[in-house]
């Protein structure tokens, strides 16, 4: 049975590596505009952000799930070229879930603790993610076959 922490509310709970919540689920798609239209029409999601991330080789969109912006998001990722990681994922696996991302308090701290625990991270230092966030990834072979993204949101001004 899971250990309970009666003095912590769900909103206050942060894991020992600084995980706060599921940030988003990343889905690889061949055509971003078609995918946005599909998720809006079928599931009623709202597109709240789009951008091109040349460093990651993607055009991406964040779709809000539910009524509050603090809830989880669905991230749609379309390749910019046939050489991008997402293009290779699509060639290998077809469209579908590509990653699960967690919001962390500090991506540097979370990365260091995970390395101490024997996890391989894809980047030596965090990179720029969506909307100015800082990100890193845990290698899927070390995370039960799941590509785990760590997201430190951009500072709120």
Automatic annotation (TrEMBL):
One of its GO terms (biological process) is L-methylmalonyl-CoA metabolic process. It holds the Pfam family Glyoxalase_4. Residues 21-153 form the VOC domain. Coiled coil: none annotated. InterPro entries: Glyas_Bleomycin-R_OHBP_Dase (IPR029068), Glyoxalase_1_CS (IPR018146), MeMalonyl-CoA_epimerase (IPR017515), MMCE/EMCE_epimerase (IPR051785), VOC_core (IPR037523). One of its GO terms (molecular function) is metal ion binding. It comes from the Bacteria. Keywords: Metal-binding. This is Methylmalonyl-CoA epimerase.
């Amino acid at each position: 049975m899971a250990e309970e922490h009666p003095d912590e509310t769900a909103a206050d709970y942060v894991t020992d590596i600084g995980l706060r919540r599921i940030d988003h689920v990343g889905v690889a798609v061949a055509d971003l505009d078609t995918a946005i239209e599909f998720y809006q029409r079928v599931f009623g999601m709202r597109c709240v952000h789009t951008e091109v991330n040349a460093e990651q080789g993607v055009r991406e969109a964040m779709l809000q799930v539910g009524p509050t912006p603090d809830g989880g998001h669905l991230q749609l990722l379309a390749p910019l070229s046939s050489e991008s990681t997402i293009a290779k994922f699509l060639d290998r696996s077809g469209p579908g879930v590509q990653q699960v991302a967690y919001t962390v308090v500090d991506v540097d701290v979370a990365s260091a603790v995970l390395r101490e625990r024997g996890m391989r991270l894809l980047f030596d230092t965090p990179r720029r993610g969506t909307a100015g966030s800082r990100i890193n990834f845990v290698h899927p072979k070390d995370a039960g076959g799941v590509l785990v993204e760590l997201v430190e949101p951009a500072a709120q001004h």
